[in-house]
Structures are given as structure tokens and as C-alpha cells.
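Practice problem: Xylulose kinase
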Amino acid sequence: MTLVAGIDSSTQSCKVVVRDAETGRLVREGRAAHPDGTEVHPSHWWSALRSALADAGGLSGVSAVSVAGQQHGMVCLDEDGKVVREALLWNDTRSAAAAASLTDELGAASWAARIGLVPVASFTITKLRWLAQHEPANAKRTAAVCLPHDWLTWRLRGTGSLDDLVTDRSDASGTGYFDSASNAYVPDLLSLALGRSDVVLPRVLGPAEYTVLAAGSRDETSRLGLGASDLRDELFRLGEGGRRDETVRLAAGAGDNAAAMLGVGGGADVVVSLGTSGVVTATADVRAEDPSGIVAGFADATGRYLPLACTLNAARVLDATARMLGVDLTRLSELALSAPAGAEGVVMVPYLEGERTPNLPDATGALHGLTLSNATPANIARAAVEGMLCGLAVGLDALAEQGADVSGVRLVGGAAVSPAVREIAPTVFGVPVTVPAPGEYVADGAARQAAWTLSGGATPPEWTLAESTRFEADAVPEVRARYGDAAQRYLSR
Ligand SMILES: Nc1ncnc2c1ncn2[C@@H]1O[C@H](COP(=O)(O)OP(=O)(O)O)[C@@H](O)[C@H]1O
Ligand SMILES: O=C(CO)[C@@H](O)[C@H](O)COP(=O)(O)O
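Answer key — C-alpha cells:
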């Protein structure tokens, strides 16, 4: 049996799946936590990747590997390949002013037409402008800029040479200095942000293109800080009987949302992901160019497009509400389901991390409509679930305006296991919701991409998909109407 490994280096953790390349059957898996915070040294992702690989029994028997990861994070390297400063993640909002000035300088319509994006604090380009303005010495030391999944792929490649940095079109399309229509970087946009464009950017590989894992010499890998052991030993000794002398293909990798789309098998439904971020996305043949900035015109991992709306507040809204009520997530779900739709008038606007859609980086969350009679744990739990979903329903409307078919939604991500989320989602979205069996769909998509490097061909190999459960319920439009009124108070400030 030929095995492939898929890695999801996401905001909160690193997950590894090892699957049969031909059928997609899960063989083994592992995971490890990432530290909290929106500014993280990439070495933590490397440690977590090694722990997650060890947990999954290492790479023994594996013929191809792919890394998917959280999008947009700014990783700056100096000319020796050393990390210049902690990476600023997609949910770090310090570059909000840089985003606003970049948008003003060219105009939102021009950004949307040129690259399919209007800058918000999440995008890499705004972080580079922030770096140039606030840390000029670090900006000057920067010889290469890459994304989280590019950096981990480069570490796995193990040569230590900046010229060996690679990326893929899906993640490049979220930087703010890549044009996914012509598949080329846009040096004048990079220069607008950083003040120069003479930095190394990762070479963009095609969807099934690959390099080779652990291709560096012993000297090169020890320069990367692996000490006496070389990278192959490091990766293969984690499992029994590793095929240490065979070439292991290292796929291009992908942004996590593009990988999730590969993992759930694409298809007609819109995908809603409830991880740290809340994401509404679909596959399209034409790039979205939305001057309102609500829909980002990203690329997917197969050569098509991935229109996407993203909120900063999803699963962690439920984590915070459970903490606030002093219960665990199971009890939070029970409480939410014990309250009526609309939570007897309690509305949560869950901007706990500021917000990206709508673009309100400095906003904070609020509970509205509390009275002596409705201020119960059950209503607050229900309001948290409804508020999180209402934020995403705005993205669903925006995707529909871009031409996506929103007659059904597929729900994935950590919070999709919550019974309350599953049952309440159709009442808020107003369409049936299907939930694939719990799994790591980003890592699965990466594994499928790895299998594609082995099979070749114009499309990724077809894998048998897990059974889905369908949830249907009558829409309750008042929930969205009341949420809309409460959220409008921020927009009209
Ligand atoms: N039963 C549950 N109910 C609600 N949320 C859950 C449940 N189980 C896990 N989660 C949440 O899922 C989140 C992690 O999801 P994940 O998709 O892995 O995030 P990310 O990809 O951003 O790292 C955590 O915030 C966790 O609390
Ligand atoms: O910024 C975006 C998409 O534009 C986020 O979706 C990040 O890619 C992080 O994803 P998770 O770790 O929450 O899955």
C-alpha cells in the first residue's frame, strides 16, 4: 500500500493524517497544540509538526507529503534563512491602519480589479507595510517573505537556501501582492507596502507539482538548527521501518481553506468552516472582484478560484461563552438547545477579536436585549451560537451575490461537532446543512494533494468520502433581523 501524509498547521494546532494514496482510507493520525497569540515564532510550528508526526507514527512508508496551513501569516527571513521576527498571524489586527492607507492609495475598486482583494489587516501585504513603518531595521534585514505553509514546506525540504522556497497559487493569492489571474507576483504592490521589491518570494508551483523532502545535505540541515541528526533521520526515526533511502515527494501545499475544499471533495455546496476563523467559501471558474471587500477573490488548489468571506470570530466565541458561563462545550450545546430560537430577545454580536467581515478591527463584542426575565445561561448560550452563525450568514449572502449556489451548506471545522451548531445552523442560514463525519478536512485535502503528485493527471485522485449527516429546519428570519439591527450599531458609529 502506498501512503501519503497531509499536514494542517492551523491557528490552534498541527494535525497530521496518513492515508492510503489510492483509496484515501485513514491509516493513522496525530496532533499537537500551537501556542496562543496572534504573534508566534515559526519555530513553534516546527516543534508542533514534529510532535504531531511522532504522534502519527512518523513518516514510515509514506511516499508523498503536503503541508496546508493558516493563510496570510507574515514570515520574514534574513539572507541566512533565519526568522527575522515572530510571524504576525492572519488574526493580528495591528496592521489595520496600514490596510486602510493602502486601500485609500489605490482605491478599493482598483485593488479588487487588479488582484481580487481589498486590503484588510489579515492580508500579508498590510503586515509588510506595518513592518516597514514600525520596525524599519527588521524590514531592512528581510531578504525573503513567505507564508506559514511555505516555511514549513521549506523546513521539510531541508536545504536552507532561500532559492528553494516554494508556495502554491491558493496561498499566494491571499498575500495581496499576487495576481491569480495572470499567476504572477505584482512587484509594484509589494513595493508600495515594503518600500522595495528586491526580496525573495517563494516560487509558485502548479497544483500537482512537487519537490523532494529532506533534500539538503547534512551541513545544510544542521545550519537550519537540527543539530547532529540530519532531517531524514529526524523525520523517519519517529516510526518503525522508515523507507529512509527512498525519495519522498513534497507537494506544493495550500492555504487551509483551499485544502479543506479538496478534503471535502469540492462539489456544489458552499462550505462553512468553524475553526478559529469562520469561513464561507465555494469553488468558482471566475475570480471574485468585490470592491466592498466582503468576498476575497482567492484561488483554489486545483487551478480554479475560491471566493471566500472570513470572520475573526467563530469557534472561540463558543469557548469564551462556555468559560463565561462556567460550563464545558457539551453543556454549552445543551443549554443553547434548551432555549427557544431567538433566545427570547438576547442577541450576541460576537466581535471578541475585533472583526474582519465587516471590517471593524477595533470592535469588541456585546450582548443586547437583556431583561430581568431573559437573562439566563440558556439564552446566552443560544445567543452565542446564533450570533456566530449570523456573522457567517452575511458572508453567505455575499457569496450568493457573487453567483455561488447557496442552496445547501457543508459544515466543517472544530465547532461543527457541536450538536447546537448543527441544529441551529439551518434556522439561521435558511438552507439545509450537511455535516461530513468528524475529521481533519484540511489535513485530508493536503493528503489528497500529496496523492496527486503520485498519480499525475489533470485532477486529484477520487477518494471515497465519509458519510454526511443532513440537518434541516425552518428558517427563523427574526434571528437574523435582530442580529442585523444590533450589528448595524457598530457600522453606523
Ligand atoms: N464540541 C465542541 N463544541 C464547540 N466547539 C468545539 C467543540 N470541539 C472543539 N471545538 C472548538 O474547535 C476549535 C478548533 O477548531 P479547528 O478547526 O481545529 O481550529 P483551527 O483550524 O483554527 O486551529 C476550538 O476553538 C475548539 O474549542
Ligand atoms: O484568514 C483566513 C482566511 O482568509 C483564515 O481562514 C486562516 O486561514 C486561518 O484559518 P483557521 O486556522 O481558523 O482554520
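Discussion: The pocket of adenosine-5'-diphosphate (ligand 1) is lined by residues 10-13, 275-276, 315-316, 318-319, 329, 413-415, 417-418 (CB under 6 Å). Students who identified this feature from the C-alpha cells alone can consider the problem solved.
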